[in-house]
Amino acid sequence: MKNSLTVSYMKQALGQIKKYFPNQGPLEVFVHHNTLHEFENLNFHEAVTHLKAVKGAKAYMPHEKYLEAYESNRISDRDLESQMTNDIYILLNNLNEILNPFNKFDLFKFMLFSDNTSYDLKSLNWILWNNSDEFMIHKNLMDSYVKALDKKYLSNIDEKIHNRLMQYEQISDFISLEEYEECRLREKKSNWLKRVLLIDLFKQIEIASNKIKKTNSSQSVASLSIDNECILLMNKNIYEYLTSYFDKGIAFWHIDKHHLGLLATYIELYVKSDFRFKGIQKGYLLNERTDPYDLLITLLPDNLNIDELQPFLMSLLKDIQGWWGVVYHGSPEPDKDFCELVLIRLIQFTAFHGKVIRKNRDNSGKSDSITKNVQIMKLFLNLGKHGLDIESMSQNQFKYFYDLINFFDENKKCKILHLSYENSYYSKVIHAIEYNHARNFSSGETSFDAIFCIDDREESLRRHLEEVDKNCKTYGYAGFFNVDIFYRYLNRLNDVSLCPLSIKPEKIIKEEQKHKKTFSNVLERVRSSIHQESRSLVSGTFLHLSLMSFTVLSDLIRLVFPKLYANMVSSLSNSLKNFEENISQVLTEHGDDYSFGFVEACDRVEALLKTIGKKDFADIVFVIGHGSSSLNNPHKSAYDCGACSGQKGAPNARIFCRFANDKDIRNLLKKRHVFIPEQCVFVGGYHDTASDDIIFYDLDRVPVSHREKLDKYRKVFDQARALDAQERARRFMSIPFVEPKRALAEVKARAMKYAQPRPEYCHATNALCILGDREMTKNIFLDRRAFLCSYDSKQDPNGTILAALLGSVVPVCAGINLEYYFSYVDNEIYGAGSKLPHNVSGLVGVMSGAQSDLRTGLSWQMVEIHEPMRLMFVIQANKGILEKAKKIIPHVFQFIENGWVNLSLCDPDTGKIEFISKDFRKNKGYSVPHALTSNQYYYGRREHLNPCLIGAI
Amino acid sequence: MTNLAELMPLLILLLSLILFLSIGGLMLFRIKSEAAYSRLVGVGMLLIFASSIYNLILTLSSGPIIIHLASWYHIGHHSFSFVFDNNFISALYASVFMLVIAVVGLFSSTYMHQDEDYFEFFLIYPLFSFSVLLTVFSHNLDTLFVGWELIGITSVLLIGFYKNRTGPLKNSLYTLIHYRVGELTLLGAMTMLHIQFDGSDFELLKSGVASKYALILIYVSCLVKSAQWPFGSWLPRAMEGPTPSSAIFYGGISTSLGPMLLIKLMTSLQQYPDLGWWIASGGLITALYASSVGRTIPDIKGQLSYATIAQIGIIYGEVGLGFYEIAIYHSLIHCLVRTFQYLKSPSIINDYQQLNLQPPKISLEKILPISIRKKLFIYARSGYYLEDLIIILIVKPFFNLAKLFHNIEQKIAGEKGDHITGKNINIHSLKEKSL
Predict the structure, then answer these.
(1) What is the ipTM, given to two decimal places?
(2) What pTM value is reported for the model?
(3) Residue of A nearest to B345 (CA)
(4) What pLDDT, on a 0 to 100 scale, did the predictor assign at position B250?
(5) DSSP string of A82-99?
(6) Using the beta-carbon criterion (under 8 Å), do A537 and B357 form an inter-chain contact?
(7) Contact state of A843 with B238 under an 8 Å Cβ cutoff
(8) Measured between CA atoms, how close is B58 to chain A, in angstroms?
């Protein structure tokens, strides 16, 4: 078949399989993205089902989890009922003619919750003999089932049943004649009957379903793989090569790279020198001008059919999936590099004498049919049907049952259950918001404003701020606050971009230090270079015999008494000098590479204020960026601000305040009808979401007249962050329920501990994104599950602001949400597995243990408390505005329509919410809990909490 | 004073054994409370650490002591007896090892929090500390063998800690086979001594024909334990367990036991100067081999493990050349340093970012001409194919032997066994059910 392959066909084939590989870049800059990004053109459910078939990854949570959720009332009957769609109804309706009047919903539920255990003859036999009660939903039903038979046979049960059994073929699979007789004599009659009856029933089902199958027999699929021995050699070799090639600085001795890239280097190093590659014909490999696709065709094994091409390539690349992202992000021509990657695998495959192994799935097909028959058997058992009933059924009638079982395969069951799982939570949220609309809180004069990132982790802090100071107002805006910059940290090598990935910043802002390097910095550096050098031989030996005893001491303190160590270091550096970074001049009249011009800055401020609908300004407006601090955490960047490309958002907040405080810019804004009163001061700040510290910047620039107020509000912040810490602490099993101050100390300690794999739970449990006025969600306890984005539809008659907002918010939030979803439902395939054995490779990724593929996605310790639900957007706007926005950004709405996120609309006037996504129904009848303060509601509870109304009723 | 010094090692051992047994008791009664386990381990470790420090102070004044505890069994002249010693060196090693064990225990109680196998980890962990102490205080090969073997088993169990992936299982088997080689040689040494002297006390190694060969066998066993050339390839593969277990076994204690044993045997070693030269040159070869491989390794735990091998090679060199004091200091400091480095290894990305570390620069390799450098690189990167050689020479024959025994067993008990296991129960599907 090789002759028939063309380059363009190969290109297409490679393009096809490339989609299946995760596309996660180096860990230094971790940006959440949809794990199945490449499949966004498909419907969500189709995509996950497709990947389940191709990669064997789970599509939803395991079935038992949903059962648990039902038992704990997380899913209620109402939620299930709302998922009984028309086609299911028709399917169940068919059964009317066979069954006496029956409760369709009960049957629906039975189908949903029947388990998916797969059986083969042996296990089935074992269960038939030992544990047949398990087949019944109510375990004591079996006896009455047996008794019911008496009536049907009237008399001579023994003999009749005996005759029936003897007429079946292959009955010896279940029972031999001797056993049968022995059993009959020895065991109690009811026991014996039970077994024989079940065998009879099963045999009848087998006969009936075989008849149906003959009419539509399914073909057995051959699966293709590469022999294990070869794969082992290939993997060892490729991991060695790729880790070395992409190493960013752990190894001392770097690979000598060929200027032509990945493949050329591989050929240069391995194919030319390694003795194991002797068998390979090298002529065409060494020719640099050969087209890689041509090479690919030449190297493919001869005995491959054309339809086997894709599975073959998949099995070649299966074990280097995680590396693809690193290759992709470091390459100007990813397509070419992908081809080269495949080529390297093919060269290895040839060199290590790989064999293609084809396996027919006949065997599993057989056990599939047994499993299916057992499922039908369970259904009949629970409906009280016997073998005799089946016998008397027509083929069509039996087919209804057969179809029913086929319809409710595992995936379908989980899908329906999952939808009700989501529906249940969504409905509760909607109820809470609608109730909240009816409540009226009279508010006094605004004390201060605070603008936060839309991050779900800020939800609790904002709520607590509003609870502590009832008159403050909070807003949510993407955490880069429209300040798109490269930032040059004082002590870092590379500039980092502090804005969403989709924006390419033009300005470089530099950090300056007011004073010279601090002692602690120097100390850290000495320690780390000792760390590095101690791994080498000669200097390592001398270091061990000399300096290392000191570092051992400091490490010992650091590991055993992390708090003491942190205090020591900070007091040491404080005593040496007052340490503070400064930002260089960011604003000039016309702007250059290192600063913004007035107009540029003004545009940015105006856009932000318009989006959040801000008109009245309090005396002090806080702008708070966020980030996270932790130790021993390769995924640290995932904990920082997503809108700042996985970096800390502090500089952005600070720079935004410089803009907004500037007189020239305020004058410019005035011309654009944005009036910031003169006495209004913007104060930038930084919230550490792990330690719940809040730092304020440039306090020396705040006028003296505001100092008193500022101090007052800072106390409010202090109170709120302690409460926030307490609310977060309820999720950490290792922190007992304590009062806010203790909790603050506890979470702070976590961020300083090397031993702590869970400094914070990051975005776990996120499920909502609410675009609208804060009034809509103010005083609702949303359990840190909602991205809160300020939006005022009154200022947006054309839908342009909404379109811009959705255009940036949907990809970011959905990326976060879906990454959590997939990492949770299949932590081994989509996620990174347990964090504990992670091994950082080349500073670009983590492996599990000694040598493995790079692990992509999130580790179990990050997602373990997550509830996998797609994000629901609640947009506070009229339908008309939504339609207008839809015309501007059709691709985003396509994404929404494909079900990757769900959408609902809140009418700004009536406060009524309706689902735009079709799968959901607003279920009535939930009672929304009330509590005086959030603290009262969450204190002493560790589980997921439903939305709750806070404050007086 | 002497009496107390005689009792202390036994007391320390007893304490650690009790700790292990009480954890085992908790598991037996299915008590699953992390707090209970971590507190028990914490208090126990602290107690053992304190008593080993006290013991260290005692030994300063008491001088070396040999304790004949009891013998397990006699056959003719031969007896399997437990003999311990208590001198400054063993006491020092015991206290430093206990410090490391206690720190790592503290670390793990947070780090392993909510892991599925938290309890299993904390069952294996005190057993490890017991076996380390047994090894440190042992004064004959019989006692040593018990500790040596237990360390092997515990470390293999922790390498295969994550059973849901194949990598850990494969690599734990690989390590197990290495350890078996080390244990077989130790067993050989034991047998030789028993045959010649009816005993296996360390003093007996000083003279006689058997002693020299026994010493060589012990040396080989040490080489395996501390992953020296040519047995070095198992160490990087052992990084499969959770970080603290990697730290304590391969960075810290387990690998330091080889030099420690030789240091304990120094009076015997001094009788055979030629052996010293062998040990020193072996150490040098290892150091060169491991550091050249380690320089090319781009994953942090892998690099740390080769750095460990190289440093321990140097320590062997010091032992071989007779610089015992330096070797003791070096090995103890190294044990602490590496353990902490392993514990902190996941933060390396952060270290580089925060501290603006430059990637290490190549130095020595630059001298080589580029064609040789390239060739050398790929050989060094794959550990000079030592691993493949070991697989052919040791692992495969080992498997074949195992298969042979398996076949024999099947022939003897085969059909009956099949009958019992296979009749009605499909274990696999039952397991699925129970999950």
Answers:
(1) 0.90
(2) 0.93
(3) A632
(4) 83
(5) TT--HHHHHHHHGGGGTS
(6) no
(7) no
(8) 24
